[in-house]
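1st attempt posting a full record on here, be nice pls
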Amino acid sequence: MRTSLLVLVAAVLAGTIHLLYYLPRLPERVATHFGLAGRADGWSDVATFATFATILLLAFALFAPLINALISRLPPSLINIPHREFWLAEERREATLDRLRGAMEWFGVASVLFAIAINHFTVTANLEAATSGEEARLSSGFLWALGIYMAWTLAWVGRLLWSFRQPPDENAAIGPA
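the predicted structure (as tokens):
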């Protein structure tokens, strides 16, 4: 099993443990939506929040494996990578698909970690509001998490495109003539 898949499973387990630990500590009315200023403007009961948080975690976790299952069945014309004809030629197709699968699994890891961050900042906003008596407010940590996730995603796309940027020159000399 690839390291990326093991890390994905570990991240899902960590997110599940996080939810199981905090759900009993939440107030009955949970702030679940926050406006641009970070103030709560939507609420639900704990059961609805738990359902939504679990669905979010599982959706992010299953996205990569579902794409990976689909990618093997797609015709090359539907796989959008630079120099597709070279990388998806019969003799390189499986190695290329393995690279894409590994990349998707790492994207799944980052997405699950972001889902955990979303759940964590929602939980902490509610716990702080319950103990202080003030309204629930999302901390600035959420914006940091969002920024990190977006920057990571851009770097991930850039790295993936760079890895397929140019086929090796098969006519180049392999050493001194």
